[in-house]
Amino acid sequence: MNFDRSLIFPPKLLSGYIVFGTIDENSSYSDASSPYFGFPYRWSITLNIFPQQHSNPNTPTPYIYNANDIEVGMWIGFINGFSYKIISIAPGSNGEQIDLVVEDTDLLNLVTSPDQTGNNAPNDNQSLLIFSLDDEGSPIISPIQSQSSQLPGYSYWISDLESRFKFRNYYQKYFYIDPGSNPNGLTGGDPVYLNSDGSFSKIDSSIQSEVDKLFGFVSGGNLPNPGHLTVTPSGNLLTDLVYLPGVTGDVLYLDTNSGVNNLVSIKPNSGPVIPVYIKLSNNSAIKISSSSGSSGSGGTGPTGSNGATGPTGSAGPTGSNGATGPTGSAGPTGSNGATGARGSTGATGSTGPQGPQGPQGPQGDPGGNFTYAKTIFVDTNGSSSPSDPRKLSDPFSNIWRAINYLEGNDVQGWTIWVFPGDYREDRRWLFTSNNSQTTIKLNGGVRIVFQLEGGYDHLIGSEGGNTGFSIIGDDRSIGNSADYNTGAYLYFDSKTGAPKGFFNFEDVASQCKIRLYGLYIDSDGAVDNGFRISNCDQINIHAINCSISTKAYNFNIRGRSLKPKIAVTNSILITSIGSNTSYSNFYSGENYTDSYPGTSYFNGILNFENVRFVIRDKNAAEPEATGFIYTATGNSAAVNANYITISNCKFYQDQKNYYAWYSGGTAGTTGPNRIETVGVSIVNTEKANQYNSVGGGALNEVGNINYIITRETDMQDPSDIGI
Hints:
Layout: E1 14-18, E2 24-28, E3 40-50, E4 52-53, E5 64-65, E6 75-78, E7 83-89, E8 97-103, H1 108-112, E9 128-131, H2 154-167, E10 191-194, E11 200-202, H3 208-212, E12 216-221, E13 229-233, E14 237-238, E15 251-254, E16 263-264, E17 275-281, E18 284-287, E19 375-383, H4 399-409, E20 415-418, E21 421-425, E22 429-431, E23 438-442, E24 446-450, E25 458-462, E26 468-473, E27 488-492, E28 501-506, E29 513-517, E30 520-522, E31 529-534, E32 540-544, E33 547-550, E34 553-558, E35 565-576, E36 586-588, E37 604-616, E38 627-631, E39 642-647, E40 650-653, E41 659-663, E42 673-678, E43 681-684, E44 691-693, E45 699-702, E46 708-711, H5 718-721
Parallel strand pairs: 19-20, 20-23, 21-24, 22-25, 23-26, 24-27, 25-28, 26-29, 27-30, 28-31, 29-32, 30-33, 31-34, 32-35, 33-35, 34-36, 35-37, 36-38, 37-39, 37-40, 38-41, 39-42, 40-43, 41-44, 42-45, 43-46
Antiparallel strand pairs: 1-3, 1-9, 2-3, 3-8, 4-5, 6-7, 6-9, 7-8, 10-11, 10-12, 12-13, 14-18, 15-16, 15-17, 17-18
């Protein structure tokens, strides 16, 4: 609490996302009798934070809240309804990125997980908010409107978030102090006082000093681990107080004469004794109800008896009023006299002395001259060689120039912020270990046309090991037109011929991680592959809310690639063949030279959730037997091939003769695939089966394969109506 500032600080409400690949388990549930024994309840994560702009010049960074303003005890809420408490913060935040340990408090995310598996982990594919609780234990979700561009469908989500803290109020009923230890064998309903080390002890009602320190009553325990304790406080929790004397657990008494900020931690020996707070920290406490205060110790002498009251004398009679005389009539009004002539104006007096200068106004908005730590900017009105692209006033003119700038300066984990406009990119985007983990943030209205002149074999790609990048668009709804998806539109218009792939990952040594969000990628039927992957080790790709349209394969994995992990969520995959050649939305073959340890593991992990597979072949002859998902030859029958998960998908093809999944492997050279079905999917086909395996390894089913329904009648092309 600061009485020296002239303006109050605005509420903090920061948005952002988890940096892809930075979620690590920190602590696990230790109840061996539970089916969730060993499940994590704390994680280490890294966040990228979008700055919250405001109009107060007195915050640590004027006019902005950023990652440096996040504090222990704040909460993170995700759009799936999960919330996590911030337990600790690692030093070294640069204002844009921050390392945290977060907790699934009370394992509430675990027990409410709708998948019935207890999956309570944070998700790096979802938007999030960072907020505080007020003194009543309710979330402070303000100002929400200014964050709405980062939050899809936030109205119902916010209602869910508020209800979560009504269900478990951590200030009024389930209060705890980390680590919430219970060394004294307390149980539900026990009255307790708070020790200086943060532990609770049961009150002995025969000891007045313990009764004076009544903190509350035990309300629960042993979650998430044995020894954890929650207490219902006997008073209201107050935060942001002026400095409080004493140590944790002390009762603070009113003393306006010798106290620190009018409070003392030692009970006065005389005079009125008024307990005010039970101290938690230097700036927070439990307010003690006024009814619990005790009186002073001095005795009061007896009151003497009143003397007798003498008799009151009688009042004399009041005399009568005399009569009022009549009012006389008014005389006539006289006429007005003539107005006199106006006098001349007097001379103007001399000017008085100048008054003293007023106080200096607040500092102005730093605007474009503010230098960001790990963010550079791109705008169509920018420069090809800005002197300092970390300033808003000095952006690059092309995205490829910004990517090369980071690569040339050997900096990792930076963000490229791209403002709305039409960009003509005549160089490829290349990511190496020098500029790995770059995030490209495309604001609404960004349209990118790749028009390469150098004959490159790809538009976007990686070289070397330990690379990765994220490309994030604003738009949350994916359709099949550049006008519909205005968040981020990427288009290919080659001058010298088509490259092998829109994204190309060839001979990447190890662990390349790619995250795409809210993109419409259109090759105009000129680029064969959306993603071409060859000779790569442990590539990890997750496309969310994307529309990917290519000539042949949306994903093409081949050439001895090891352990690929591919996930596609809430997206549309479109292949426009235009000939009688058979292609697929997803192709994987000739890529297994190793597997995860043991034959119970799989080389390829493929996950498709709420994906619309579209193969346009209106002018083509009848294609050979194939599938939307096609897996071909492996290297050994002893090595498992792919673990494929299909959840709530649709498969559409004009000729209606594709399988949902098809194996074209050769007998003895392909290990068994495994397909898991979740929810109900539909394939528009005349085939009798939803899948087919010819000559290759066996197909092991998990779940009910009949949940993939065949439909011979025409259904509307999903790409025409979006998702």
